[in-house]
Amino acid sequence: MAGKYNARPKLSPTALLQLLLPHQHPRLVPFSLGLGNHSLPLTQDREALVRQHGFLRTARLRRPSAVYSSTSRPPPRKTHNLWDTPTGAEMKLETRDIFAGTAILVSVVTFALSYLHTWRSSILSIKPVLVFAYDGGRGWALRNVGNGPALNIIVAEKPLNSEWTNPIRIPPIPKEGEFVLCWLGHTNISGLGATYTDFRNRPYSATCQKDLSRTFDGLTLPSWTEDQLGKHWEQPGCH
């Protein structure tokens, strides 16, 4: 049996130790596998030692991307802060974001202004405006100088140092129309007022005091119940 098979050389304990604990060879320094000056007197070339004892193994040692000794620390990671000078690409990206945000803001503001203008135009196109006018032949009249009909009109009087009184409901007044306030005639009263709405039921008010005519959005006169409102055809001077 011994002649049939070639005897393989045996490793001595020293040679085995040389394989397990190689000398601090330059190829193995990054792995911290050597024993430095305290290592056994080993052969410097590990591959020659392996071939001497009949063990030819090919092993590629893959070097890690970064290997540090036990006493050294990895370099600190570079962080970006607000005081770092931006690169050209970063400045280009920031400039593009600023322009995009500005364009969106301008679009939103333009849309809001356009919507507000359209909304106001739609109101003005149907808004009635009533004013008190005096005619020497007929007396006091209420004219509509607005763009839409005036509905639910209530006319009231305001004597000097007194509250609004004698509320009278009159018929609607169309655009460029008027209604003669026959019960007032040529009376010289301190103040006249009227409340009315457009056909979308938005309220308005008009006053005339000492020849000063004013119009308001909303109600500036008191509210009266139906029982408190007089009928214009029942007033004296309107028959």
Could you characterize what this model shows?
Helices cover 22% and strands 21% of the residues. Mean pLDDT is 75; it is low at 29-44 and 55-68. With 239 residues, it is of the alpha+beta class. The longest helix is centred in the middle third of the chain and has 37 residues, at 88-124. It is elongated. It is built from three helices and nine strands; from the N terminus they run αααβββββββββ.
Give a quick rundown of the structure.
The protein is α+β, with helices and mostly antiparallel strands. It contains three helices and nine strands; from the N terminus they run H-H-H-E-E-E-E-E-E-E-E-E.
- How does CATH name the architecture of the domain at 130-234? Sandwich
Shape: elongated
Rg to the nearest angstrom?
Answer: 52 Å
Number of helices: 3
Reading off the top of the CATH hierarchy, the class of the domain at 130-234 is best stated as: Mainly Beta
Uncertain ranges: 29-44, 55-68
At the third CATH level, what is the topology name of the domain at 130-234?
Immunoglobulin-like
| Helix content estimate | 10-25%
H/E series, N to C?
HHHEEEEEEEEE
- Kindly, what is the distance between the CA atoms of the first and last residues, rounded to a whole number of angstroms? 152 Å
User: What is the arithmetic mean of pLDDT?
Assistant: 75
The tally of strands reads 9
Q: Label the structural class.
A: alpha+beta
Please state how the strands of the largest beta sheet are arranged side by side. 8-7-6-3-4-9
Largest sheet: 6 strands, mixed
Tell me the fraction of residues in β-strands, as a range: 15-25%
